Amino acid sequence: MSEKALFTKTFTVDGGDFQNAGSVSKQVKKILKQLNIDPDTIWRVMIVCYEAEMNVVLYARQCEVTLSIYPDRIHLKLADEGPGIEDIEKALTEGFSTATREMRERGFGAGLGLPNIRKTSDMFEIESTVGVGTTLNISVLLPE
Predict the structure, then answer these.
(1) Does 99 score more than 90 pLDDT?
(2) Which end of the chain has fewer CB atoms at under 10 Å, N or C?
(3) Per-domain residue ranges for the chain?
(4) Spatial distance between the Cα atoms of 91 and 82, rounded to a whole number of angstroms
């Protein structure tokens, strides 16, 4: 994989900000369309970006999202300040959720966010420290 980014942009997502939830995903989509990235790749990036962004809105205080475009892939790094994840393996299990009743009433908390990110991406790494936060590194490969 090539290591020199052709394009990089950083965004901020605020936890609990449901009014602006999804706005980073929309901005990323607009950038990828302007760069003529193929629609299937954009669709995959949108899924992983939106799922990760919603996890931040639901659980974290704040997150820095960095979009990097390389010759061979689209990369998203999300580094949040939040409660962290106690059991990553459990959190990656479809259907497992720590969502509150309020979150479920808003239509979230099915326990599909992290599993969908992992399934839809070509590279998925997660690191988390309880009481500090979680970092996701996600890549979607570009077609050759």
Answers:
(1) no
(2) C
(3) 7-141
(4) 15
- Long-range pairs for 107-113: beta carbons < 8 A, 24 or more residues apart: 108/54, 108/58, 109/58, 112/51, 113/51, 113/52, 113/54, 113/55
Task: Give the pLDDT score at 2.
Answer: 52
pLDDT in tens, 40-96: 999 999 999 999 999 999 999 999 999 999 999 999 999 999 999 999 999 988 888
The CATH number assigned to the domain with range 7-141 reads 3.30.565.10
DSSP 3-state assignment of 53?
Answer: helix
Which pTM does this prediction carry?
0.91
